[in-house]
Amino acid sequence: MSVHAVLGARGVIGQETVAALAGGADEVVAVARGPVVVPDGVRTRQADLLDAAQTRAAVAGADVVHLVAGLPYDHTVWARDWPVIVRNAAEAAQDAGARLVYLDNVYAYGRAQGPMREDTPLRPISRKGRIRAEARELLRSFPNVVVGVAADFYGPGARTSVFNRLVIDALGRGRAGRWLFDAGLAHSMTYTPDIGRGLAALGRSTETGVWHLPTAEALRGVDYIDIAAGGPGRARVLTRGLLRLAALVDREAQETLEMGYQYEHPYLFDSSAFERRFGIAPTPFSVGVRRAIEAERPRLRA
Fold it and tell me: H or E stretch including 235?
């Protein structure tokens, strides 16, 4: 039996990771800043990951530490807090003699040419991408680290997801689904329960290095919206000009605009190496979006 400590257990990825680990032979400790609802048999601890001592105490006795915490979508917050959180988690894992499973996104790849794979060079072109690349570099100095990378995500309860907000929430309120810049381009999306299953598999393995978590074949933006809507004709494209206007008064639009390059060319994410190694296939989008819509329906009807 191994003890898995999940740092950031209150967020949607944390919840999915805890759920994927729970119910088996392993012991699971869900760590969050405040109270968190967990499955039966899962222990909880409270810690502020910006505090090194609290982080060490939270992972004491762990064999595996999963860092899946999130921050507000603000590059100034990322620049201030993310290096501290990553170092605290890595040092705490090292002190405990534990493996570190680190969840990352694709921002550090920048504008990749062709499908993004584990050996895609880190060439960030955004502030948030540089912060992520620097965190990867920091982790190179720590032993026994494995990195699980996800593409843009969607899923039940994923309320910070661009797709959940622009498509699932919009359709649930009777509006057209929206897509950024070019709905005719292919764009990979990772289903949040698949992220949890993937991180659990990495944590139970002895692998190190970088692994792309299971992600279904990319569809075009218009295809995603048509499937979510149950029929064609309900897609609305948000142009870069519209987003620039919104960014004049909205901080979140400013942060989204910086990452807009991801919607201006095909965004293709290859997880075939993970699928072969672990035998975990990604959830088809048609299945995942149905579950996400069902989960959000009560909230959107309220």
Answer: strand 235-238
